[in-house]
Amino acid sequence: MAVDIPKSFEALPTSSPRHIGRGRRRVEDPALLTGRTQFVDDVELPRMLHCAILRSPFAHAKITEVDTREAESLPGVVAIVTGDDALRWSHPAQSSPEGWGTHCLATDAVRYVGEPVAAVAAVNRYVAEDAIELITVEYDPLDAVTDPVAAMAPDSTLVHAGQGTNVMMDRVFTWGEVDQAFEAADHVVSEKFRWNRMGANPTETFGCICEWDPLDLSLTIRGSIQSPSMFGLGRAATFALPSNKVNIISQPHGGSFGGKGGTRGTDVTCLLSRKADGRPVKWIEDRIEYLTAGGSQAWDRHYQASISVRQDGTVTGLRVGLIDDLGATGEAYGAICAAKPLAAFTGPYTIPVAEYDLKLVATNKVPSGPYRGMGPPPHFFVLEQLMDLAARRLGMDPAEFRRKNFIPNEAFPYTIPSGNEYDSGNYEEVLNQALALADYPALRSAQAEARQEGRLVGIGVASAIEPGVFDWNAYAIVGMPGTGVPEGATVSIDIMGFITVRVGFSLEGQGQYTLISQLVSDYFGTDPEMVRVVYLDTQSAPPSFGPGGSRLGVAITGAVLGACDRIRTKACRVVAALMQTEPENIVLHDGLFGIPGVPEAQMSVSDVAGTMLARSDLLPPDVDPRPEATHVWTAPGRTPADEEGRAKSYLTAAQAVHVVQVEIDRETGFVEIQRYCLADDCGTRLNPATVEGQTDGSVAQGIGAALLEEYSFDEDGQPQTTTFMDYLMPTVYEIPKVEKVAVVTPSPFTPLGAKGCGEGAIHTTPAAVLCAINDALAPIGQMAREVPAAPKRLWELIRAAGDTPEDGLI
Amino acid sequence: MALCSIQVNVNGTNYQSVVEPRLSLADFLRHELGLTGTHVGCEHGVCGICNVLVDGRSVRACLLLAVQVDGQSVETVEGLAEGEKLHPIQQAFMDEQGLQCGFCTPGFIMSLKELLDCNPSPSEDEIKDVLGGSICRCTGYAGILRAVQSAVAKMGGGQPSSAD
Lengths: 810, 164
What we know:
The complex is a heterodimer. By secondary structure, chain A is of the alpha+beta class. Helices cover about 25% and strands about 25% of the residues of chain A.
């Protein structure tokens, strides 16, 4: 059956949408505001036990003995598991790249501080934590390798002796005649950069409740799980279970940003439940566990990158060399963060050829995982610093340099060298709007005055692409299979005309249930209050991936509108039979099915649903009597990756320009953000208020990345940032007022023209803040090459330049 | 471990409980009384997500032991709404999208309640002084700041002295 999904608001069956496209109060909020939303740690099950995990204090050591006898005798302890249980009952974790996973409990050696060694299930968490203190482990410490460059040396200590190397992947991707472009260039700008580990840190850590059914040999897992279907497949593989015997129930969760992780802790908890004869076991990761060894550490990167430029300011080539420190295993899928830049490798520019020299390296640190944006934010930090260096060398204004290299409007859809196709855009207008909002000429003249006074004031103008609607094919180069990421929804109208929408993802904060109620109420001409959205677990839901990769807003819009259209088609047949006409004569408009222009030949949606469910005598003989339909949406036109990783992958390309003014205190190296302006274009805004909320939050995370957040380790691999006193999260004091303006260029390829926008501003913010910092430092001949640009780093640069403001002025 | 008997008034209800001395106030509220609206974010006193009021003053429920509130009154987010009617601070958070995932929200709301109970017309600096004690990862604080302005106006405190 052909399904018609509206590509614009005008194509909806309504005279004018009353709900979609507007900022509405969120249906999610009353429960959240009163403390009634049930997060995983709020769930209590009969006979439930509580897990505590004993973790390695060493970054690298052999385990010679684990003695649990004393812990076993502690009253209240029900089960204890060690590496022997993991060997007996589970397989090593799946990983990317393949073959770099380990068992969930150390079996022979530990490879990072915080790696689980044993775990206890007891009557409460307090007793479980008492018990792990009674477990004794004998370690034989080994040298740890924490620097990925050193780890690549042939004589390096090996993280996994059996692998024979610490290099998980080493490949050069070449897209076009890159050597030629660099040889022919008037200028080549080349620089090294360092992006330190940082990550998601949602306010709720990971948590789960695992139940092993010893008779059915099945698993039920409740948890704060971002991608339930993928999570379930992983557990089925770990425990060699049929995939239909693993049921994942995703509770609403307190943020994710890709950093929920939790697979290893879940597997440990599953083993405990099995050992406790199937009693449910709850594990709530505490913040110190999360900061030490949780799922949030991302992007530990060493870059060497260059661009080739003609004298007229045209950028002709891009080379990026990346050594990405993935930590001890590939289990947390940090590798896909290194692959995702392929979806937007050359940013918003017409750079025709590019090369990616990618090395993924194992070290004795926590396995790295995803974080909001997945990998392009550091890539764009690098690209945008190179753009500024080139502009400075050519004596061009950085905004005009970017304008010159922007992909022009008439070039869309536009294929970039790394293979992805950008759907649409109006980059010059976004730049114009951002510059106008900031009053850029005034900023520059104020800066000139400040420089006369010797102040380090800088302005950054940066632009980046947010790939939206993720696709597995973008990650083919690190071994992820498949093309397309289906998302389904079931829409049902009941006998009274109330509408229920069933989906396979739970609440995470982006307001998608509100979006669904807006869509359905405009489609069927009802009030949003008549629409209820219900979560289904993985054994009940239609195919679903859930939130991730800036896809769910677009994907769920396609799924819901597709299901509505399927109901419409069925209902038209019923109404046509009642009105003794052909189905093609029946039209749905403003909540009424009927013959256009014939006022007496109209039926409300609820009357049609009631007829279908309660008047079988009136129905045509072969009609499906359910006013219900499921539609599974997947992005159209995607292609599998070729040998060089090229694919039509992410369906949409949102674009933004951020203009930032900073001042650096010469005495302390402290950065004050004095002005933050941005323009962005993410196509049709389905709910402008929630889009703005995503932007505000993503700018804040980008500022944290640029200035504050860093997981640091000493040379023995000991983490130095295991509390919120060491890992600095942005507070209200660090986040400036963000001035925003929207440009709307609908996507030609998506439902209602929306583009993925959930990850948003973090693609641009760190780049823009660092551009501003480097603009401030330029007069003293210095450049910040390391993120975060913490005061100590900037203070050292300022000191290195000498203390007199006049030195090195350009 | 020796147990202690405590008497605590929570949201107007008196509770008599026997607890271990090491039980945190947050765990007491959440797991002994079932008041799971108070969330736990860091358990080391930095994030402010577990903020509740004890005798009207905001405290970190993760850093206080249940036995330390013996004989005192505790207010949590569950005590704010009257039936279906949200407290003006809750309503302001809803109207201004002062929340996304909502996990940190109860802590913010309780510390703001302390502020507005004591000072109906706080200055922007006074507002930031309170908000600066808590971490939100979703909103970038923009919606929260709007919500506070709206709550101040709704609760009759007039406009904050230095908006923006």
